[in-house]
Design goal:
This protein is an all-beta fold. It is built from no helices and five strands. It has one domain. The mean pLDDT is about 85.
């Protein structure tokens, strides 16, 4: 097989765009927002669906981070993900609400 070129079977990101921003708000808090979009193609045919997988993924994120004390941060985030795939089991909408409490030890 010398000289033959093999195509990769894994995921190949084709296009990716993202942007985000932290905005100071009252009381030392920060509002956080970000947007991302990514297109991906996969090498090789999916044996269960007899097709090559192609995806578009969109992510939206909005939240607030608050520092109640010097080494503590409390964050809330609302996340939305849309995966638009030509293979049904990889095509989904996901909504998440997260609350995080963090302590820094330095």
């Amino acid at each position: 097989m010398t000289g033959t070129k093999r195509r990769p079977v894994g995921r190949t990101p084709v296009r990716r765009r993202q942007g985000g921003r932290r905005i100071p708000v009252a009381g030392g808090s920060q509002a956080v927002r970000s947007v991302a979009a990514q297109s991906a193609r996969y090498g090789g045919e999916n044996v269960f669906f007899a097709t090559k997988r192609k995806d578009w993924r969109y992510d939206l994120n909005a939240g607030v981070a608050y520092k109640p004390a010097r080494q503590w941060t409390v964050s809330t985030q609302l996340l939305y993900t849309r995966s638009d795939s030509n293979i049904e089991i990889n095509d989904f909408d996901r909504k998440q609400f997260l609350v995080t409490v963090r302590r820094d030890f330095f």
